[in-house]
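Co-fold these.
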Amino acid sequence: MSSLRLAIASAIVRLATVALRLIGSGATSAPGKLLLFLAPHAISQRSAQLARGCAVISATNGKTTTSGIVAKIMTADRATLVHNKAGANMAGGVAATLNDQQGDFGLFEVDEFWLPDLVEQLTPRSMLLANLFRDQLDRYGELDEIVDRWRDVVASPNAGQVVLNADDPLVAGLGNSARAPLYFGIEDKAVGESTAQHASEQACCPACGEQFTYSRYFVGQLGHYRCPNGHVSRPTPDVSADEISLNGLEGSTFSLSFSDQSFDVELHLPGLYNVYNALAAAALAESLGVDRGTIVGGINSSKPSFGRAETLSVAGRACSIMLIKNPAGANEVIRTLASDTEPHDVLVVLNDQIADGRDISWIWDADFEGLSCVTGTVTCAGSRAAELALRLKYAGVGISQIVVEERLPQALTLAIGASSDRLVILPTYTAMLEVRELLVARSVVRGSFS
Amino acid sequence: MADIELRIAALYPEQLNIYADRGNIAVLERRCQWRSIDVTVTPIGIAEPLDPDQFDLIYLGGGQDEDQRRCAADLIETKREGLVAAAARRAVVLGICGGYQLLGHSYELDDDTIEGVGLLDVKTVRRDEPRLIGNLAIRPELPSAPTAAVLAGFENHGGRTQLAADAKPLGRVINGHGNDGKSGQEGCRSGTVIGTYLHGPLLPANSWFADWLISAALQGSPELQTLDDTLELAAHRSACRASGFTGR
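Predicted complex below.
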């Protein structure tokens, strides 16, 4: 009876989806919401039909990129994917993906807050939890609340094999509640810092409440940490990266180690944060039993995901889009940009729609100081361009370099016309969608831009 | 003007920094430096005492509940007397969001009551009600503020703050929720002690208020030199507009 109900609901939703497309709506979650209304168990029913099961990925930062790398690996492993690759990661988006796509393996990035609900319905084979950073407080509330929700998920019998970031004390600390979690982490101390970045989370020992001490910080509170009273220390990773060499906006090379085997990896995604994404993807694939050669091949062939370090050519200029949405993510993007030796101009786009976070305070927690070394123009656009420009003034960007133009199409024209160097575009989420649309309309689009 | 100095104490910068509080400190610091006023910022953490004679402006930000609880206990234990003495000699004390709540008498949370320092005649209660979140603009009621001045920013708080009958708000809500979403009052001021729910952060979005605070902390002398505030004024207009306030 319930499968009949799902079949009818599914048919209605397909018709509705076609109708929405005909009227030009790009809505990705509306059909899914309709499906869940008509058939509330659609997610668990559809998920149970996936012959090779599914995997779930959650994190504050890197969900889309990490699942993009896992998709490469699983495709190379001859899986046919059901994958919410456009990032629609709440219940409606996952339901719509399951309804629209046919395949034998499900790969779902899931919103931090929706994780408990969706894990219960999806019953994944593996669940990857990669990091937790301070995000849009007006949407998600306090980080402590997310940690509490995640602790319950990790303990659930429906979570499958749990894969955790050993370097993130907030995430690794959940390991106590899991059965035999798999850990990943960075071993190369040379790529870390001895002091914490501003506004890093303060993680404390669960046993004595004392703040952890660090021998190395990699990204935000991610690093090599231990309780000063000896209660807890970073778990030894099962999958790790060492001998990391970061090559600016081009990518990096590193040595990827499983317990008894090492491989040289060439990653075409920039920055240390993407080394973490690749490592997380490798650990998840390892937990799924994928052959290690296939894992390495998948990482080596990975290309930037939707708006995450995508590069395309507009009027003969290379334009790279790197999404920024919270202090930790923005810091890594800015740090990667600052380490690039080529000259470039920058366009930063700050919107304050709900998906960006209505509260723009976070720009003062992000280290825009790294942009003070940019020698070209820094154009500020978006609904809160004026506040962004002020932030850059305080970050030490020269007043004469700052151009303010709220309207994005005009700002893009100004920024592209500014010089012949590479243009790096740092947009918030809704701004990224607008920027892509404008660039696609004006550009010769590269293959990855489909 | 090198003999003039503004001495800022930033309380619990590692715990109470949730709404980009460093932006407020940066604005105070730089607006002094641009005027050749010497400025020092001293972070004061848990278990460290507060010498009331060493500071002209004391800043207290907001944090997550657990951090705020730890800081509240420490505030009572090691800093209350210093804060009270500093306020008595008219040092500026600025509390934002959680910091505002801690400057009041108490913060009631479920069955628990966190004691505050009591410099502001307010009480905060958190019940099972939705958080008050959104852009906020207020009309401040301050001595010697610019005509038709507005403070704009963002608020995000679960607690509802009630002023005692003769306590004065920092201002009246133009758009947004303010202290409790009903009274039309926002923040509280008693002499040079100020509490508010406005972040954004507050001072980058309202540079005139940063100057008001600097003047108050320096007790009105010298008169502050005018700066090139082109970007500051544009940011203020943008924050006002986001709060739905465009008129005068």
